[in-house]
Every structure is written in structure tokens, then in C-alpha cells.
Amino acid sequence: MLKKYEKEFIGSNCQFILADSNSVILESTPAFLPIKKGELLTDLHPFFECIPSLVSLPERVHSFYCIHLSIANSKYITDIQIRSIEKGQLVLIQDLTKHYNNYQAVAQARNESIINEELIVLKNVELEERELFKNLFIQNFSHELRNPLMSSIAVTQILSDTDLNTEQRQLVEVLRESNANLKLLLEDILSISMIASGKLELRHNLFNLAKLLELLAFTYRTKATSKGLTFEISVDNRVPEFVEGDRLRLFQVLTNLLDNAINYTEKGTVSLEVMFNQQWANKIHLHFVVSDTGRGIPEDRQGIVFESFSQLTLQDKEKGTGLGLALVKGLLALMESEIALKSAPGKGSVFSFDLGLKVPLSFERSATTQSPSKGTSRNIGKPDRKYKLLLVEDDERIQTLLFKVLMDTDQFYLDIINDGAQVLEQVIQNSYDLILMDINLPNTRGDHLTKIIRDFPFKNIKQLPIIGMTAFAYEDHLKTFKDAGMNKVLTKPFDKEELLSTIFAYL
Amino acid sequence: MQRSKKIVILGHFGVGKTSLIRRFVTNQFSDKYKVTIGVHITKKVVALTSEDSISLILWDLEGTDDLDQIRDAYLLGTHGIIFVFDISRPSTFQHLKTDLQIVSRKIPDRPLLIIGNKKDLVPEDELHETLNEHAIQYNYLTSAKTGDMVEEVFLDLANLLNKDA
Ligand SMILES: Nc1nc2c(ncn2[C@@H]2O[C@H](COP(=O)(O)OP(=O)(O)OP(=O)(O)O)[C@@H](O)[C@H]2O)c(=O)[nH]1
Ligand SMILES: [Mg+2]
User: Fold this and answer.
1) Cross-chain residue pair B33–A112, CB shorter than 8 Å
2) B143 CB near ligand 1 (under 6 Å)
3) How near does any CA of chain B get to the CA of A68, in Å?
């Protein structure tokens, strides 16, 4: 009984062929391949061309797995065994097409997924490279813009200090505002690209959150009022006064959201709400909400407003920078938070985010509030005597501008040199109160000179306050300059107040 | 009797081994990827001169990134080797040196051509940059898709094998 089945099964799937030493077929069992006596094995399929090379080998039996044969218009996937016998070869062909087709499907899926994965990784690397290039470009370009903008801000400042008629004053005001916007734009785009290239690092300092909110309340009440809007602020009384985090970046997030709200609201109210979510050990979770009664944002644009260079409509007359929300998104991502937006056209917009901040557990409020900040408390404009400054700057326009600003105060004697090589000589021969020095000087660098000065054997020279000026505001650059011994580095563009308050802080 | 020479085509999977043979034998190409399992064997007679020809038995092996895994039976009686990598996928040539060492251990003393395929996918300048960067030695850069340099590879090897015989 079984014999019959065995014969049926093996008979249909296995074929035995006997061939002589010249590969001429002597005999074959009737199975799946139509084979005639007298045919050449090599005519059957080129696989059999390998037989002559097997004969010379010591092994008598050779097994080949997964050999594709296509014979008489049919395709088979087979295992083939070739045995050398006295007369020639015994060939056993086993049809395993079904079995191997299953295996093929598995291999197909496996290979495709491995290849796809690699291609995706490659694609991402390429995108990252392009993104990196873009960010570097933006960073360099915005630095290039700093010097001319610096000139523009300074000239405007000087101009506004002269006698002007009403019309001229209005024009200068426009100029001043444009400069301020430009400066903001420049800082925003720089921050965005620094975030994108991972160069922007958050600080973790203790700061007075209550004061920050007060400042915002004051600023935005004023801004709102001047546009005929109401400004409301509400702060949960469980929100601690002092928290640990990056004050500057939180400030940037909130001012961008509030500016945006005011810009896009014609009438009604802009409000800021700070809610207390929970406290875990020394970490508190706050919820910030900025809402307005402005025109609202249609649903299909709600994702786009957070991309760089998008503006709600091209015809907008408002001076939204188009970068503010992108910056907010980027900064919040750095703070491990995410901005949420609820809005509908005509219904206003609500921007909100959660923020985890540390609170010092054993913090005593009075201890910190009592320690006054040093250095900046000097009263500008009331010097005991005139100070002697050395200005080292090779850009003549900036020389002129700084000269004007400084001389106008009538509090300084000023020496100006534009060659770094003369600095040391000047310093030795004169007794200055402070050096104001550009960092990129012809033939040398401000930070190198500072290092040399700091190594002087004379106390009065060694300890001279040195303020650097640079258009390069990367954190790592600034650190290098400070490490070289500069007391402070001003980043171009800076304005009159910044310059004077910095100088006075070190006199 | 016509001389026949066995050529094995080796390389990682998906590099275009099957496509190169297809282009050479039937002058066709398909964008679809059908993974080869085991081995496909085809034959093509190549004219070397007006009187002389040689028959190439092309063994298109299943691709693998672990060449040690190749079944030795497939390699018995090999006369020449074509090793193919994919220029657009570094994983297929990153370890070219070790791959070739394995090949020459498994099939000693046989002529070998190293082929970088899919040249159509990579811009010319980038192509040389990548290959130099990885210090890749190759004999031909081909495209099975456009047919560029495909025939040259097989004819070159046919001539090498002809001299050998
Ligand atoms: N653009 C382009 N695609 C190619 C070229 N050669 C092969 N391909 C594609 O690459 C994929 C893989 O080609 P195959 O020839 O099957 O690769 P293989 O080396 O035989 O792969 P395995 O059998 O798995 O080892 C297919 O989708 C082909 O269409 C080429 O020169 N250019
Ligand atoms: Mg293949």
C-alpha cells in the first residue's frame, strides 16, 4: 500500500538520470522532466556543463541546492545530486519549486527591507548635510550683516540726538524702528539656525520669574494700550517667585508669542496666563497660555506658521517677522516642550505650552534678593572725572561713530588706533582707564593682544579693563574671548546705551 | 568542440548581478527587484574574433553580505569571477578588501573583475569622491540600467579566460 504512495510521490518529484562520461543520457526514470535517451545533458541545461570539472575531483558525490532549471518552457527549482559511477554519472534531480518559492518570498521581504533601511539612512545623511550647509550659510551671512546694521543703528542714534524738526524726527523714528526690527530679525534667524545646528545651549540659572512676568506685564500693557487693545495677565499664586532655567530663552518665547498676538489683533484683548500644573520633588510644571482676539489662523495653516519664513498672508501690512513662531517652536523643543495652537478664523488664537522648571528646595528668598548685582550699579552720566579710553578699531566708519557717541558724553578722553601692532606700545606709554578693542584687527586679533596684556608684569596694565567688540556671536567664540581675559564682549550691532553702560560697569 | 568557461557573479544582494547578466544576455532591464535564491545559470556564446568564439556559462548567485556563506558546490570548476558592488550603497563596498580576500580564498588563482554597478544613480563627481574616500579599487563602473560598460566587462573577462586556456 505505502509502496504505491511512495512511488507516486517520489516518481513525480524525483528524477534519476544515467549518463555516460560524455554526458550522453543513457537512461531516465519518467518523472517531471521530459528526457529522451541519447540527448546530451548539456543540451538540457547549461548547469550540466559543470560535470566534466567534477569528474577529476576526489569526492564521488556532489550536491547542489536550489538550482533553477528551465527546461521545455517549464521552470523548476531543484536540488541536484551528481554521483560519479563506473559508467559515467548518476544524476538525481529533486523538484522543490514550491518549497523554494516560499523561501524566495521570505528572502525578498528581508532583502528589500534591509536595502530600504540603508537608503533611508543615506537620504537622511544627505538631508542633514544640506541642512548643516544652510545653517552655516545663514550664520555667516547674518554675521556679515551685523557691521552695516551697527553703523545704521549708530548713525540713527546720532541723528536723533541732533536738532531736528518734527518731520525729520518722525523719519528718524521710522529709521530707528526699522533698525530695531532688522536687529530682531537677525537675532531670530541666527537663533533658529543655531538651534537647528545644535549650537544653542540652554542655561540653568536661578532667576526671578515673578519679576520677569512683571516686566512682561508692563511692556505689553504699554504696547497693547498704544494699539487700543487690552492686556490681561493672570498668574496662579502657587507659581513660585524663583525658578531655575534659562531666563533669556523663556523671555524670548513669551515676547515672541505676545508680539505676535498684538500684531495680529485689531481689537479686543491679548492675555497671558500662567497656571500651576503640579510639583514633583523639586520640579514644577507650569502651563503658559497666550491668547488673543485677533483674526485667527485657518486650520490648514496652523502647522505652517511655525515654519521659518512663513507669514499668514503675503499682503499683511503688520510687521510680523515671520520668524518669531519658528523660534518659539525651536526654543520650546530645546526646553523639552511643545507649542500647541487652537485657533479659527475670526475667533482669535490660543498658543500654549507646558514647561518643567526646577525650584530650589531649600531656597531662601531673602538671601538672594538681598545680594545686589555688582558692577552695573554705577550711575551713568555722573562721573567723578574724565576717563581715558583707548579705542582699537580698523573700520573707519565704526571709529567715527564710536568717537561721536563717546565724545558726546563729554566724559572721555579718547585715543584711537587702527593697528593692533601699536596697542602694546600705547598701553605702556599711557595710563588708560579702559580699552575698547575690535577683535578682528589687521595683522592680529584682539583676544591675542588681551592675553599678552594680561601677562604683563605691571599691575596697572595687567588689570586694565578690556571690552571686546565683535560681529561673531557664537557662544564658543565668546568663550574664547573671555578666556583670553576680556572683561566683556559686545556683539555688533550694539546701541549707545549698551556701549555706555558696559563701559561704565568696568570703570 | 566549443570551449566553455564558467563564470560566477558574486556580491552583496541587490547590487545588480542578475540585471547585469540580463543586460548582457538579452539586452533587457527591469526596475523591479526579484531576489535571486540559489543560482540561475545562463549561457552566452561570445565571438572573440571572426572565427573564434567561447561559450560563457554564467552562474548568477544569490547575493549575500557574508561571502563565507556561499556554498562551495556552486564554485566548483569556476574559471573566472565577477564581483559586483552597488556604488549607491556604501554597505556593499565598505568591506570590499575583506570580501575579496574571502573570494580569493574560496576560489584561488582565477581572474577576477571588480565592478561598481548602478553608476547612473550617482553623479560623476560624487562617484569618484566616494570611491576614493573608501580607497576602492575597481575594474569597471557599469550601469545595467543604461547598459553602460556592461558588454565590456564580459568581453574583457572572456578574453582573459581565453588566454588562460
Ligand atoms: N538604477 C539602476 N538600478 C539598477 C541597476 N542594476 C540593477 N538595478 C536595480 O537594482 C535592483 C536589484 O537588481 P538585481 O539585478 O536583482 O540585483 P542582484 O544583485 O541580482 O540581487 P540579489 O539577487 O538579491 O543578489 C533591481 O531593482 C534593479 O532594477 C543599475 O545599473 N542602475
Ligand atoms: Mg540576483
Assistant:
1) yes
2) yes
3) 5
pLDDT at B165: 62
Residue by residue, DSSP assigns A373-407 as: PSSTTS-TT--SS-EEEEEE---HHHHHHHHHHHH
Measured in Å, residue B143 CA sits from the centre of ligand 2 at 15
Compute the distance between CA of residue A296 and CA of residue A312 in angstroms, rounded to an integer. 10
Lowest mean pLDDT, pick from A2-11, A113-122, A202-211, A242-251: A2-11
Say what percent of chain A tops pLDDT 90.
35
Per-residue pLDDT tens over the stretch B104-145: 999 999 999 999 999 999 998 888 888 998 899 999 999 999
Residues of B with CB below 8 A from A99's CB?
none
Give span(s): CATH 3.40.50.2300, chain A. 372-505
B116 touches ligand 1 (CB under 6 Å): no
Predicted confidence (pLDDT) per residue in A138-189, tens digit: 888 888 888 888 888 888 888 888 899 988 988 888 888 888 778 877 888 8
As its CATH architecture, domain A372-505 has 3-Layer(aba) Sandwich (3.40)
Residue A479 Cα distances to A93, A128, A139, A375, A443, angstroms: 77, 27, 18, 20, 22
Contacts of B163 (CB under 8 A, 6+ apart): none
The rounded distance, in Å, linking the Cα atoms of A206 and A36 is: 94
Write the CB contacts of A46 (distance below 8 Å, at least 6 apart in sequence): B41, B42, B43, B57
Percentage helix, strand, coil, to 5, in chain B?
Answer: 35, 25, 40
| A286: enclosing H helix or E strand | strand A283-292
pTM of the model: 0.61
CA distance A473 to A190: 9
**Domains of chain B, first to last:** 2-164 (3.40.50.300)
Residue from B18, B21, B37, B93 whose CB has the most chain A CBs within 10 Å, to mutate: B37
- H helices of A161-286, where? 166-196, 209-226, 247-263
Pick the CATH number of A126-196 from 3.40.50.2300, 3.50.50.60, 3.90.280.10, 1.10.287.130: 1.10.287.130
Separation CA A66–CA B7 (nearest Å):
18
Q: Find, among B45, B51, B102, B96, the residue nearest to B75 by Cα.
A: B102
Cell of residue A368, nine digits: 538672594
**Length of chain B (residues):** 165
Q: Which CATH class is domain A13-95?
A: alpha beta
What is the location of CATH 3.30.565.10 in chain A?
Answer: 205-366
Residues of chain B where predicted confidence (pLDDT) is lower than 50: 1
Using a CB–CB cut-off of 8 Å, the residues of B that contact A are: 4, 6, 13-14, 33-35, 37-43, 57, 62-63, 71, 73-74, 76-77, 88-91
> What CATH class is the domain A205-366?
alpha beta
User: How close is the nearest chain B Cα to the Cα of A105, in Å?
Assistant: 8
Of A46, A62, A111, the CB nearest to B41: A46
ipTM: 0.95
List Cβ neighbours of A33 (8 Å cut-off, separation of 6 or more): A15, A44, A69, A71, A72, A76, A93
Helix (H), strand (E) at residue A98: helix A97-160
pLDDT for the residue numbered A371: 34
* Å between B38 CA and nearest CA of chain A: 5
Q: Which residue of B has its CA nearest to A82?
A: B73
- What average pLDDT does the segment A222-234 reach? 91
